[in-house]
Amino acid sequence: MKVLSGHLTLLGDHTMTRQVCEYSVIRVDKTVLSKAVVPLGLNGFLAEAMGDQVTLYYVKPMGYFGRHILVGLESSGGQYYVKENALRIFILLIGGIALIPLLGFGLLFLPQAFAGLAFNGVASELQSRGFQLVR
Q1: DSSP states of 19-49 as a string?
Q2: Fewer beta carbons within 10 angstroms: which end of the chain, N or C?
């Protein structure tokens, strides 16, 4: 888990899907996170915190091609985190391992499964700190 604290000064251009909002850049004080992926549950709280003092909790797994994935947000409005679906991670992991002998197709699923495990590890830590789960 990586932590970034300071004033949220910029939310760059973004594209939205059904599950995430991908920002070209997020700037906190003078630190820039490029290619930041924000789950929709946190996106509203992130936009609300614009200009405020924030602490961002994120991971940068290898399976997401250098993207920073926001897991938790702490601001004057509260402490929030999101969690990945454990069944999805399980299916990706088991399916990935089972499909390796079939021309190596399983290797396509394993990075996503490991990224989900890293994501949920951070989410569990934030939950133990008293953060509120959002969907």
Answers
A1: SEEEEEEEEETTEEEEEEEEEHHHHHHHHHT
A2: C
In sequence order, the β-bridge partners of residue 4 are 56
φ, ψ of residue 7 to 5 degrees: the values are -85, 130
Residue with tokens 């609300």: 48
**Full DSSP string of 49-84:** TTTSEEEEEEE--GGGTT-EEEEEEEETTEEEE---
Token code pair at residue 59:
């991971």
pLDDT, one tens digit per residue, over 49-72 is 999 999 999 998 765 567 888 999
Residues 6+ apart with CB under 8 A from 85: none
